[in-house]
From TrEMBL:
Residues 132-173 are annotated as: Disordered. It comes from Mytilus galloprovincialis. PANTHER family: RIBONUCLEASE H, ZINC KNUCKLE DOMAINCONTAINING PROTEIN-RELATED. This is CCHC-type domain-containing protein. GO terms for molecular function: nucleic acid binding; zinc ion binding. Gene3D superfamilies: Zinc finger, CCHC-type. Residues 68-106 form a coiled coil. The lineage of its organism: Eukaryota, Metazoa, Spiralia, Lophotrochozoa, Mollusca. SUPFAM superfamilies: Retrovirus zinc finger-like domains. Residues 132-150, 163-173 have a biased composition (Polar residues).
Amino acid sequence: MAFDAGNFLKTPDLENFDNLKKEELVLLAKHLKLDFRVSMRKQIIKNLVIDKLVDEEILELEMKETEKIKELEMKERLEMDKKEKEDELKLKELEMRERLEMVKEESNTKVQSKSEYFDAAKNIHNYTLSHKRSFQGQNVNTSSGNYKNQSTERTESKPVAQNKRQSSYNMSSPKFDTFEKKSLICAYCKKNGHLMADCFRLQKKNERDNKPKSSACTTPYITSTLECPASQAFKSSFCDYMEEYKPFMSDGFVSIVDYTNLQPIKILRDTRASQSLLLEGVLPLFEKTSVGASVLLQGVELGCIDVPLHRIYLKSDLITGPVIVGVRPNLPVEGVT
């Protein structure tokens, strides 16, 4: 049945207004010739119609006030519902944050426990390696003379019961070769069949690392009183060190003034020292060449020496021009000036 706005306005009632749809309210507004838009909300159109009817005294003023009270109550309910939902969201966010923090703490605890297990296993493995090596027959040179390592005496003085326990775990037994040897993994080369203590590659690396190497600040000291075979071997090693210096050796010239009275010198570069040095006596240095300052030099022996500084002229493949050098009566590498 179609809605008739004229019949409805003959007996208007507030309860009937509550049951009207938006389309019916639009028809009423058009019938009353109200200024409105169809896109307006239903409640706004309803309020416009009621105001119009109250102004024309078709409805009583109390009905209008009652309608306003209902509208205010509805707004308050909406605000309360909105506030309750916001409170629930905040509570859920707090619970989620607490759960995330608990998960982080548990994960950190798990990671720490695994790292502790790994460190313990690594320490046990290193302890086995450090106590498995044998030093029998090796001698150590010291300033007081040659003597056998104390670890040899400890190895020789082990009780018989311990030797029996070691013999029961024979690496060359067939049972070990068939099963246990396959399960061994070297911690250095990552290959199966042996431990880090028996790694051939690691032994070769240790031999290379333990080989003594000289630097520009130190050199083997040789005296003419050494006539034994050990001193001859020491001299041959000194020659080897000098051979290693050759790629870093070059020729140059120095003088007090630019390009005048150039004196040839032998340069050793890449010494990693913070101060360049010149052999005393190469140039006739005097007060005018001095910069009036000195530097403290310290070598591997941890002793400090006071070295005066002079300004000279250097001509070389590396640099050409005035430089400041420290002057020493002797240098650690023979032939370098």
